[in-house]
């Protein structure tokens, strides 16, 4: 009986002296933080602002980059070859075009004849850009009517021209005294186009007095293939003298991507500063809490609570502030992104649901939680280092 009675108090004491269970730690941490609701609330608010700043600014950078990339379309996989104006050349020769077709491989080569003229229909008139493209379907899509596989007759007008002249499929437009029946109206172009069709009229190449191409557009399957074609054209046509100018659009797209990458990094840096400020606030809250609870911590140490348990308790309190603030910040950032998609027509759902945006939310939460725990590390170490006698004397 005596052995049993002595073992029970020892077992109970060992159980009471440990804060190792999860739920006791949660209860005690929540109770401690609720004592100073204003101070804890302000610290949590700092984490909310920091996490929201990192997540929302990171998502904003991604949305801007993806929206700009979508507007560029397949521009990066295209190469433009024009005659070298410094040599007085205004047209590409048939020989040069054949050389481009030879080195282009599987890429699509589209010779383009261009000029300017005034188009009329009835009393309406407007200035238009004329394009002569043998296969218009390689560069454009039809909004009304059908694009011919080979453009031999009739005119294909852009939507801006159709609106300005009040014409539709089947009507007639007059260009430089010649009448052309409208066989199709181009669709509104999406994104950036090398050859804009909005205010243009496409005529058969045979309708031009000079059928020589003013430019050649090479469309490849990727930016890398377009770059290879550009190098091959340079090596073939510019071996002796710079006969043509090769505009490698993939380089422009790469520069744009680099710019948005730097912008995203800059925005994330701004958000990180806000979160570091929140970390200082949490550090202050935990230090003040530890110093106000010296007697309480001394009692815990006196009844046998281990240093690691006190350390874990304070770290848990700091982590709880970070987890709550981080969750609220991530939720606000997600709601803000949804509002951006709802209010800005240019932002499409695919951009909002991009995997990079989810990574920004996770990184922001992890960063907020990590900063909170690190901010509580020193106060936790100070609390764990308190000697029971000194702590009780300090409050006594």
Descriptive overview:
With about 400 residues, the protein is an alpha+beta fold. The chain has 2 domains: about 20-70 and about 255-395, no CATH class; about 75-250, no CATH class. The protein contains 13 helices and 10 strands. The protein has helices at about 1-15, 20-35, 35-70, 95-105, 160-165, 225-235, 250-290, 295-300, 305-345, 350, 355-375, 375-385, 390-395, and strands at about 80-85, 110-120, 125-130, 140-145, 155, 170-175, 180-185, 200-205, 215-220, 245-250. The protein is elongated, with a radius of gyration of 35 Å. Mean pLDDT is about 80; it is low at about 1-25.
Helix content: 55-70%
Radius of gyration: 35 Å
How far from one another are the termini?
Answer: 40 Å
Order of helices and strands: HHHEHEEEEHEEEEHEHHHHHHH
State the helix count. 13
Strand order of the largest sheet: 2-3-8-5-7-6
Task: Tell me the fraction of residues in β-strands, as a range.
Answer: 15-25%
Q: Which geometry do the CA atoms define?
A: elongated
Mean pLDDT rating: 80
Describe the biggest sheet?
6 strands, mixed, barrel
Coarse structural class? alpha+beta
Q: Care to count the β-strands?
A: 10
Low-confidence stretches: 1-23
Count of the separate structural domains: 2
